[in-house]
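All the exercises in this workshop are built on plain-text protein records. Sequence and backbone structure share a record, each on its own labelled line. The question running through the whole workshop is how a given chain folds. The record below serves as our worked example for the rest of this section.
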Amino acid sequence: KVAIKGIERELICPACKELFTHPLILPCQHNVCHKCVKEILFAFEDSFADGGSESSNQSSPRIRISASSMDRIDRISRSGIKRNSLTPRSTLFPCPGCQRDIDLGERGINGLFRNFTLETIVERYRQAARAAIAIMCDFCKPPPQESTKSCMDCSASYCNECFKIHHPWGTLKAQHEYVGPTTNFRPKILMCPEHEMERVNMYCEICRRPVCHLCKLGGCHANHRVTTMSTAYKTLKEKLSKDIEYLISKESQVKAHITQLDLLLKETECNSERAKQEASQSFEKLYHVLEEKKSAALRAIETSKNIRLEKLQTQVEEYQGLLENNGLVGYAQEVLKETDPSCFVQTAKQLHVRIQKATESLKTFRPAAETTFEDFVVDTAKQEDILGDLSFHSNGLEIPEINEEQSRMYNNALISWECPGKTDSADIYVLEYHKLNRDEENVTWQKIEVCGQTRVVSDLDDDSSYAFRVRGYKGSICSPWSREVILRTPPASVFSFLFDDKCGYNNEHLQLNPRRTSVESRAGFPLLLGSERLQVGCYTTLDYIIGDTGIAKGKHFWAFRVEAYSYLVKVGVVPSNKIQKLFHSTHDVTSPRYEQDSGHDSGSEDAFFDSSQPCTLVTLGMKKFFIPTTPAAPKDPASRILPLPSCLGICLDCDRGRVGFYDAGRMKCLYECEVDCSGIMYPAFALMGGAAVHLEEAVIAKYGEYNDDI
């Protein structure tokens, strides 16, 4: 037999830290007191009404909800979910055992089984703990006698005499089940919590819980794999018995591990003390350095003070000598009393020079020393920053580096980093960022803790630059900060759309991917067959495709990538009233007649560009970006040709009637022009020959990435 007192740890509720009272089995297989479950759920409900305040946890002194559970309650309460505060009806339950949010289902507490086996073991433990305290008979006249047995059917305890009276021989009560004295009475038949009139007779292997036949026929376990209760009982008991036998057979190994752990505990204590001493010595060195610097600074100030006081005191004495009957003036007055000319001249010459200097000093009075000590102000701003970042540094923890190629800025910021050795040596990373603002002197960094090596940062201001940096932590040891990387947000909010496969879409020349985020122009047999019908000097037309969503007002931005092998691509915007003209135009944009540099006398080339085209487009191709010919454009054709950025962006400002074309990687404007926004504007693309365009996908956080906000 296993000693009852040795298993107390298994009989403690993780919520109230006391012995279980009517324990319930959660879907995660942890046990919690029935009262604790209700109190946690009530605290959970109160957190929604109180805005997730910590005061909601103070209403019950019995329950002790961990900080992590309260953080999850606060997070869910901030999500805006509303619950009924009269009864605990939340389907989410923060399990104090595994620290996870458990879904209790529609029935909530009513759908949980009571763990009668654990309840019986707890009662045995209580009886062993209070062996000296007897259970009294419930039916004896005062004074009651000590009970000798308890009836499980009557849920009462009896002495021998009372048991015979209430269970007479030959009656149905004589067949009741009785056990030794106990206060724990459980039902003889376990009923289904979903169907209260049905007893459980099967075991669901998927949900790992007993079910009744109605649960299997039409309930939530209809499609689950179930087995009979006797089979489940036999199987689980065999497995548990084998596992227990295995653990008992490994008792010597367990004891060896316990001995090793005891040594590790002592070693940890010794190492922690040694680490404390080393840390104390390091700080003592800093104290000594600061004390020396402080003493040197105070000595320098004191020396400067004495020198200045001496100079000022000398100057005071000199000016006091200018007073009548004092010092220099008194001496001069005595010299004037000399009547012998030769003696007077001999003395008066030097005295006259001194009198002249004193006269000049009165005209231009200037103190002999400064009274301020501005030169002795100690600037400790940098040192304070360094001391603020003071932590345990380790040579074995590498400095992470932000990967600028994998990081990108779009609707959100995706920041990716890696370690130089390609090994994730840190347990957790801290990502910090702040908005660059020339007016702000004190920078406030926003901090995010990340378990992986990527993070999505949202709620950033448009048309702004942000600095990012990251460092790794392994326990209390941290690495230095990485090099700061500056990324710029788009000039406007991101506009999301897909390619339209209905309006004017030419499926013979263009091919869309299933998600409608990429379009490709194929120069295949349809183009060759169509070229037979083309006249001499006329080459081919562009294949247009537009976005499936239009813009009526406001300022919006979208980005896309053009494949490097693309021969000719045009991108821009088109108003709704010119879409039909765009797709049904018979003009051949590459024929000699309409070529802008063909020499055809069709008026001003600039006027042709502005008025003849149904939409505002710029030309891309052969890894180049071509600035359109306008009066403001450079006259030299070579200066109008720029390298094609890896990612392009378009910013449409309907309110100002302007459209800009950007290098989306650096968020730098390459070209901007006026555009008529009288109608609904649509993104427009045109392809010719072998070409492909891919819309930039929005930056979306993976599920669970905002576990703290997050």
In short: The first strand starts at residue 23 and ends at 25. The domain at 1-45+89-132 is CATH 3.30.40.10 (Herpes Virus-1). Residues 51-62, 75-89, 586-612, 703-710 have pLDDT under 50 and may be disordered. The longest helix spans residues 251-320.
